[in-house]
Design brief:
With 303 residues, this protein is an alpha/beta fold. The protein has 13 helices and twelve strands. It folds into two domains: 224 residues, Rossmann fold (3-Layer(aba) Sandwich); 56 residues, Arc Repressor Mutant, subunit A (Orthogonal Bundle). The strands form two sheets. Strands 1-2-6-5-4-3-7-8-9 form a nine-stranded mixed beta sheet, sandwiched between helices. The protein has a three-stranded antiparallel beta sheet with strand order 10-12-11.
């Protein structure tokens, strides 16, 4: 079965002592003996950040995962996740949108796609990054295999970012494994009324780094990855900002001051939809132009 699978373009089996085997994975406890890889083997040696979270996130959670992945992918990080629905899917798509590499570690044989709804996404990932599994071809997705898969997501990455997670969540297992492997752990805080924020708040209480912008992560990981990064987040932001200086972004900025203002009022004043305003505010927040305040209000960020 392996021989037949290897005949397809882009398919590789990499053993632990192979030069193409990722060095960070070689260092973890219970390192895999072999990896099945479909896609670009070179991305296994890029500085990587894992983004994980709930399979049933809020819309804000999905936007956060997408935008953080897009910005960090644009900064030269390979975005690692697990191809699950929800936050994983949003993270992979954010990286793809930036033209960045992304790796999906699978909890089953690489000749399968789970969930089936991500069949097309899996093909896009293989074309721009890689699908990776330690499990033999034909292995069915089973609940017990996913925690094993999670140690590879964290082990492959310099740090793990948890976007939204309940108190009992597979994402918290990944975060715990990251800590045990000596990797950085990041968490995005949220509303105290959102059950999916409780896992992140628990991690922060336990010592995870609270993250508000993509720059927070770059600042922490840059010393570990500066020799590998091709670009910086600052240069990416500078490249993107001229786009934002025109059209809707310039229009929206006219209505944001240092006095807090809500999304509904911004939408009414600007004539933009609430969805447009919400998405644009997230971009401006990631780029350090505005800050999010309590009660869903925003204001210009003083420098």
């Amino acid at each position: 079965m392996d021989d037949e699978w290897l005949q397809s373009a882009g398919n590789r089996i990499i053993v632990n002592d192979d030069d193409d085997f990722p060095e960070l994975l070689r260092q973890i406890p219970r390192a895999p003996e072999r990896l099945y890889v479909k896609g670009n083997v070179e991305c296994l040696h890029m500085p990587a950040l894992a983004i994980v979270g709930s399979r049933n996130p809020t819309e804000a959670g999905k936007r956060n995962a997408f935008e953080f992945a897009r910005h960090l992918g644009g900064a030269g990080f390979c975005i690692v996740s697990g191809l699950a629905e929800g936050i994983d899917t949003a993270a992979h798509r954010g990286a793809l949108d930036a033209g960045a590499a992304t790796i999906a570690f699978l909890g089953h044989g690489i000749d399968r796609v789970y969930p089936a709804s991500n069949h097309e996404l899996a093909h896009e990932i293989a074309a721009q990054g890689a699908l990776v599994s330690e499990f033999p071809l034909g292995t069915h997705p089973e609940r017990s295999l996913f925690p094993q898969r999670n140690r590879l997501i964290s082990g492959m990455s310099l740090g793990t970012l948890v976007v939204e997670a309940a108190r009992r969540s597979g994402s918290l297992i990944t975060a715990r494994l990251a800590g045990e492997q000596g990797r950085e752990v990041f968490a995005i805080p949220g509303s105290i009324h959102n059950p999916l924020s409780r896992g992140c708040h628990k991690l922060i209480r336990q010592g995870a780094k609270l993250v508000e912008t993509a720059e927070d992560i770059v600042a922490e990981l840059a010393p570990l990855s500066s020799h590998l990064l091709q670009t910086s987040l600052e240069s990416t932001t500078k490249h993107e900002k001229p786009e934002h200086d025109d059209g809707d972004y310039a229009h929206l900025r006219k209505f944001i001051g240092f006095d807090p203002i809500g999304i509904d009022e911004l939408a009414a004043n600007s004539g933009l939809t609430i969805d447009q305003v919400s998405s644009m505010l997230l971009i401006l927040e990631l780029e350090g132009e505005v800050e999010s305040l309590s009660g869903g209000r925003y204001s210009l960020l003083g420098h």
